[in-house]
From TrEMBL:
Membrane topology value: Multi-pass membrane protein
Pfam families in alphabetical order: ICMT (PF04140)
InterPro entries: ICMT_MeTrfase, Metal_cation-efflux_comp
Primary residence: membrane
Keywords: Membrane, Methyltransferase, Transferase, Transmembrane, Transmembrane helix
Entry's localization field: Membrane
UniProt GO MF annotations: methyltransferase activity
Protein name: Isoprenylcysteine carboxyl methyltransferase
Annotated TM spans: 39-56, 68-85, 126-149
Amino acid sequence: MLLWFAGTLLVQRWVELIIAQKNAAWMFQQGGYERGREHYKYIVFLHGFFFISLIAEGSRSTPPSWWFFPAAAFMLAQILRYWSISSLGRFWNTRIIILPNAPVVTRGPYRFLRHPNYLVVITELLAIPLIFGAYGTAVTVSLVNLLLLRIRIQTEEKSLTDGTDYAIAMNDVPRLIPAGEGD
């Protein structure tokens, strides 16, 4: 089950990388430029390590009796992932590519969160290992991911304020957790 799941997830990521490359090519043709290249390699490494660690630890572990809860969180994250991707359209990418004067996307989940896809990644990197009882992977990868996302989000938000109306459009939108009324 673990190998099938990991294989399916790898195919999903491969297809997403193809989409991201096509979107990047289009954005570069339109005058876009990349930021955050120096930390992107660490994100790629972490995600590669995640799969290796998941398979190594998960193949020696027993799924917990409560596996359904992280599985449900993973499935909800997939809904948010594809809602995010479809809302951004050609602007969706795995890299930080800035297209000056492009409209700021404020539809879909971006009405409620500045970075819904990062919430998806946080959820996945914690939930997937928990489904298979890979607790060390869940903790280690999640902590490193949070450190990298801190850098990533700061870089992305600073970059998006250059040449776009991002700061104005997203001023009242929370980063990762939707705010309740009165927050």
